[in-house]
Amino acid sequence: MATERKTVTGARSHDRARNRRRERELFFVAALGVGCNAIFNIEGGTLANGTGGSSGASGTSSTKGGTASQLGGAGGRGGVSSTAGKGGAAGGAAGEPAVDLGGAGGVPELGGAAGATNPPGSGGHASGGKSSAGGQTSTSGGQTTTSGGASSSGGSGSGGAPLTCTGSLTLCSAACVNIATSGENCGKCGHSCGGSECKLGVCQPAAVNVQTTPVDAVAVGASEIYFSTPASSDGITPPKLFACPKTGCTLAPRQIGSSAYYIKPLILVNDTLVFESAPQQTTERPAMYACPTTGCPGTLASFVGDGLNGFAGPLFSVGTHAFYNGGGVGLGWTTCTAGTCSAGMNLVAKGVRAVSGDATHLAFIDTSANGYRVASCDYSGGTCTAAQLIAGDHSTVHATQLYGNKFYFLLPGRDTFYEGKLDSCSLADNCASITELARGLDSPTTYPSPPQLLVDASGSYWFTATTPKLQHCAPDTCTGGATDLAGPYTTPDSLTADANFVYWVDAGTIWRVAKP
């Protein structure tokens, strides 16, 4: 029996030693904080494409209070930022309650990276990843873990250093360019020459269309230019009306229509081409015509005629209205749309010239009374009662323009004496005072008939006579005198413009130059 008790006692002692060794192993593994189930085979959360990892599964309770059986799962690590400027995603969830040790808190990630260097970046702004809470306390005397670490806030990026241009280069749209020669940044950033050369910061004129025959007139639309050609010298080819893209169509312009007589002047109003021509008969009787930009009908129909007198011009448009000046019918207007114009309505009796207009007023040289006075009227109500605008003889005024509630006019002076002047006055005070914008100009040309002055937000434009050139003054000033934009030419004519360019014709060439 003694031997049997000794054997049993020894066996029990061996079991107790094995159990104590087993408990020490469990405690060692618990200290590592590895999330497991009873077999320790479920790991804590891991990093997964910028989002917090999943938490580990919690262990089950031991039957003995205070002794660890399994461990709580480790918290997943916070996600890594995948895009510069964004903070890391939140950390993973904490481990569930365990008997002994809770799971470790999730690890916070860093904030966003700094911005790019060129152009200057805005840097990161989002906060760093949030930490996960620590494991919860066991109800059986287990220990408590500390909470997860606090999140770190992503600092704002310092941004990239600004690009610095050296020497003669200027920073334009994140690039260093030479504004003296850049065709897209000529003289200043964003000033395009439209494909022509930039020389010393000034856009040079460029030929848009070159014809083997002369060009009589040109009008400009949103995407196309429209122009007319005269009859051939042998009379076989009649006057024609063409269109081509603004990019040019030297070899193949699109024919819109033809007429028995000239097609000039020419304007575009509300997708309608309006021009003076004559019907197909042996006796020329000038009239005003209209046709769609897509193509004229086989037989042109006039909307107003003037017997044998013809039209003195200029022909111009305001909104949907076209204005004409007949030698016999006087100053009238029409409404145009979809390729047709309504019957003309008279506004002022014959005897006016150098007419110009804006949305509400007309201004002109009135020869019907008191010599050559400058007169104006408000036509917005459908009638025009002329009233004197500037007293005195203005018979030498060849071109006028209304723009921005101001009246502009050119005084040519004597040819070759450089006595020309550009003046303006305000309609608001009935031109009580005259502002001289420029003097000592080459005489504004007496051709075409009538001479032309163009004024818009970019300034004033006209042709000179002694040496035919296109000249320009800045808006409401001409400090240092007029600027030569193009020339010399032979007989420049048909001055017109769109938002960015000024157009004209000279012989068989259509020219354009970027507005300053």
Any overview of this molecule?
The protein is globular. Strands 14, 15, 16, 17 and 18 form a five-stranded antiparallel sheet that branches. A four-stranded antiparallel sheet has the order 5-33-32-31, with no helix packed on it. Helix content is 6%, strand content 31%. By secondary structure, the protein is mainly β. The termini are far apart. It has one helix spanning 2-32; strands at residues 170-172, 175-177, 198-199, 202-203, 206-210, 217-220, 224-229, 240-245, 254-258, 266-269, 272-277, 287-292, 302-305, 316-318, 321-326, 330-337, 340-341, 345-348, 352-357, 361-366, 373-378, 387-390, 399-403, 406-411, 420-426, 435-441, 453-456, 459-463, 470-473, 483-486, 493-497, 501-506, 509-514.
Name the features.
single chain, 1 helix, globular, four-stranded antiparallel β-sheet, 6% helix, 516 residues, 31% strand, mainly beta, five-stranded antiparallel β-sheet
Topology:
Elements: H1 2-32, E1 170-172, E2 175-177, E3 198-199, E4 202-203, E5 206-210, E6 217-220, E7 224-229, E8 240-245, E9 254-258, E10 266-269, E11 272-277, E12 287-292, E13 302-305, E14 316-318, E15 321-326, E16 330-337, E17 340-341, E18 345-348, E19 352-357, E20 361-366, E21 373-378, E22 387-390, E23 399-403, E24 406-411, E25 420-426, E26 435-441, E27 453-456, E28 459-463, E29 470-473, E30 483-486, E31 493-497, E32 501-506, E33 509-514
